[in-house]
Amino acid sequence: MNPDLIERMYTEHKKTVYQICVILLKNKQDAEDAMSEVFMKLYKSGKVFENFEHEKAWLITVAKNICFDSFRNFWRRVKSLDSAKNVCEVIRTDETLSLVAKLSKIQRMAVYLHYYAGYSLEEMSRLLKVKENTIKSHLHRARQRLKLEMENE
Length: 153
Prior knowledge:
The structure is a single chain. By secondary structure, the protein is mainly alpha-helical. The protein has one domain (3-152): Up-down Bundle (Butyryl-CoA Dehydrogenase, subunit A, domain 3), CATH 1.20.140.160. The protein has helices spanning 3-25, 28-45, 52-71, 74-78, 83-90, 95-100, 105-116, 121-128, 132-152. Helix 2 packs across helix 3. The model is unreliable at 74-93 (pLDDT under 50).
């Protein structure tokens, strides 16, 4: 793949990929490793993209898969993390994001893609390979939990 193209894609998508990794992994170091792995897969893939949205969707899917795969790792399950603190330290631009970090991984992903990345339910359904109603349920439960957390603060 063309190094200039990889550099452009890295520059344009690094924030999105990194935030997805942080949201899912709840750890700065693990998120950085996962982000590196995403762009290494891009480099090795030689993939040709139809447009900007196609490349963004591909990177998000790869990031999600890499993060979910890391949960299957024995050492990852054993390691204790102070998840909300780590996410708050990494992303200070939005106070609500620290509350999002307390949600389940699928709810975090749904909230991030819908509210932060601007994906529609239909687009999220295709990207995550789940039914639209499932995404609606995850978003509904996430909103309920976030509302409770915000009221408690």
